[in-house]
Amino acid sequence: MVLYSVTVNVDKDIEEEWLEWMKSSHIPKVLNTGMFREHKMFRLLNEESGVEGTTFSIQYFADDINKINEYLENHAPDLINEHYEKYKDRHVSFRTLLEQIN
Fold first, then answer.
1. N or C: which end of the chain has fewer CB within 10 A?
2. Which InterPro entries does the protein's record reference (predicted)?
3. Contacts of 21 (CB under 8 A, 6+ apart)
């Protein structure tokens, strides 16, 4: 299994709106690509001092790296752009890929 993790820090004043949009629009669009079997969303509890905003980790689980690569090539650019356009200067994000070790 491979994990595609998106970490996003959002301004506190848009946190509730952003969460609702993620749950009702963005995450369903990601899952509807058929590339992921499930997802989980977490709120970071131990923010570093001096970090403004609230940090979330959205984790998408895929069966293999080929599904992630297909997602990144064919679906991610539009979805990432939609997120950026909606919340331009109100967030920062980064993405990581992790492989499960048995």
1. C
2. DUF4286
3. 86
Q: Which amino acid is at 23?
A: K
Q: What is the pLDDT of residues 20-57, one digit of tens each?
A: 999 999 999 999 999 999 999 999 998 776 678 999 99
Q: Which of 24, 25, 21, 33 is nearest to 60 (CA)?
A: 33
Q: Are 36 and 62 spatial neighbours (Cβ–Cβ below 8 Å)? A: yes
Q: Are 71 and 2 in contact (CB under 8 A)?
A: no
Cβ atoms of 87 and 18 closer than 8 Å: yes
Q: At what angle do helices 65-74 and 76-86 cross, to 10 degrees?
A: 60
For the full predicted model, state whether its pTM sits above 0.85.
yes
What would the pLDDT profile of 51-76 be if each residue is shown by its tens digit?
789 999 999 999 999 999 999 999 99
